Amino acid sequence: MLEFLLPALIAGIGIAMIAGPLGSFVVWRKMAYFGDTLSHASLLGIALGFLFNINLNLALLVCCLALAVLLVTLQKQKYVATDTLLGILAHSSLSLGLVAISFLDHVRIDLMSYLFGDLLAVTTTDLIWIYSGVAVVLTLLIALWQPLLSMTISEELAQVEGINVDLMRLILMLLVGVVIAVAMKFVGALIITSLLIIPAATARRFAKGPEGMALLASLLGAISVCIGLAMSWHYDTPAGPSVVVAAAGLFMLSQLKRGEA
């Protein structure tokens, strides 16, 4: 049992480590729909990877980062409302990916594993890919924590302090893109954003400060991974959705606690 679940557990904890602090920024800045847009577009990256016969992880990363840059660029133009723009890009990129996959007659693709993830199929190469992303994202978050936090509190004050708000906003979107790229294959395009949002929303109830919230969100994400994998093992449920159900259960418990207070 341990030999079978250990790679999935290590992968899930790695994803939780970066989803916690980054998800805190997503919650603070109300960027949930940004994450959904990037996760929907990740299926287009899968299609392009198969189409051009390139590494799927690399294709996912390039696609997510390209869309993150496009989102920030179009948002600055202010020709279309942000929520409208996100809706257009999310569903059009997802549909384009599905259409592209339908033309790949020579490749057999299990769409369910990409839509809902396959955490139990993690390999050593996958772990290297995940933890490379973890190292990059955590290093940048630690180095840029204060400017990102200042921008989140007040963009106007951050500009007065000499912080390049546009650059920080772009970096934050790129970091979200990296997390979605490394996690999408294992958690799934349709539910990856939930691992960014739910543990952070749960941690917000108990945390005394931003750093505490980020650390607690990572811990809650790791606990959700453990519970979800246990559910998957004992009840033969899909691993990725089970992790999300566990995270949602912890969130509901936190709300009941607040009701008692």
UniProtKB/TrEMBL annotation:
A Pfam family recorded for this sequence: ABC-3
Entry-linked InterPro entries: ABC_BtuC-like, ABC_TroCD
Subcellular location: Cell inner membrane; Cell membrane
KW Membrane (keyword) present: yes
Chief localisation class: membrane
Coiled coil stretches, renumbered: none
Transmembrane segments: 6-28, 40-73, 85-107, 128-148, 168-201, 213-233
Gene Ontology cellular component annotations, sorted alphabetically: ATP-binding cassette (ABC) transporter complex
Alphabetized CDD domains for the sequence: TM_ABC_iron-siderophores_like
Membrane topology: Multi-pass membrane protein
Extent of the signal sequence: none
GO BP: any one term: zinc ion transport
Family in the record: Belongs to the ABC-3 integral membrane protein family.
Protein's job: Involved in the high-affinity zinc uptake transport system.
Name recorded for this polypeptide: High-affinity zinc uptake system membrane protein ZnuB
Organism: Photobacterium jeanii
